[in-house]
Design a protein that fits this description.
Belongs to the complex I 24 kDa subunit family. The chain is an alpha+beta fold. The chain has helices spanning about 45-55, 65-75, 80-90, 95-100, 120-125, 130-140, 175-185, and strands at about 115-120, 145-150, 165, 170. The chain has seven helices and four strands; from the N terminus they run ααααβααβββα. Strands 2-1-3-4 form a four-stranded mixed sheet, with helices on one face.
Length: about 210
């Protein structure tokens, strides 16, 4: 029997990627960086983006925090939001769209202003995360202000099952917390303060409740 090759299949031109040597289509419009003269950017957003860019040797590394800042302002990564970030960072909107569509925490369509991401990965799932997710969804109902959805691992397995609520990690959650979580958001209160990860002294030396 002939020995089977374990090598990765290659195309006739020797590459694993088809079309790598295709001619560039020069008939397409070139990618354009938004013109600062015609692209208004809110002053607060510009300040946040420039501060993020100053933290990195390569300014492109600030793309993620810059997109987060734009999403916080606009509620989602709208074409306008991405264009504003592109204008400040001097990048093309296409570059930033590629980043935003890769990461699950960026919303590419309008969503509710209250973002509740319930972790349903293995540690949380084994501790009842799916039931918690269903309970929060039921409590929020059809309220358009809420964006409640399952999420992959958020890296806080020690407080499983947990959720990210407008960026605040809370847990461990149980079914009884669902109604309170939604009510806190609707009333503009702190969400389940006793279960916020940031209040734990081990997570933050300057935590609000040092003895939590």
């Amino acid at each position: 029997m002939a020995e089977q090759s374990s090598a990765v299949a290659r195309y006739g031109h020797g590459s694993r990627i088809p079309g790598w040597d295709d001619a560039v289509d020069l008939s397409k419009d070139p990618a354009v960086i938004p013109d600062p003269a015609t692209t208004p950017v809110p002053a607060e957003l510009r300040t946040q983006i420039e501060a993020a860019m100053a933290k990195y040797p390569n300014f492109r590394s600030a793309a993620i925090p810059a997109l987060h800042a734009a999403q916080d302002l606009h509620g989602w990564c709208s074409p306008e939001a991405i264009e504003q970030v592109a204008c400040v960072m001097r990048l093309t909107p296409g570059y930033l769209t590629a980043v935003a569509t890769f990461y699950d925490m960026f919303e590419m369509k309008p969503v509710g202003r209250h973002r509740v991401y319930v972790c349903t990965n293995i540690s949380c799932s084994l501790r009842g995360a799916d039931s918690v997710l269903a309970a929060v969804q039921d409590a929020a109902g059809d309220d358009a202000d809420f964006n409640v959805r399952p999420f992959e691992c958020l890296g806080a397995c020690d407080i499983a099952p947990m959720a990210s609520v407008n960026g605040e990690f809370v847990g461990p959650l149980d079914l009884a917390d669902a109604e309170q979580l939604v009510a806190d958001l609707r009333e503009g209160r702190e969400v389940l303060p006793a279960k916020q990860l940031s209040r734990r002294a081990c997570a933050d030396p300057g935590a609000k409740d040092a003895d939590a």
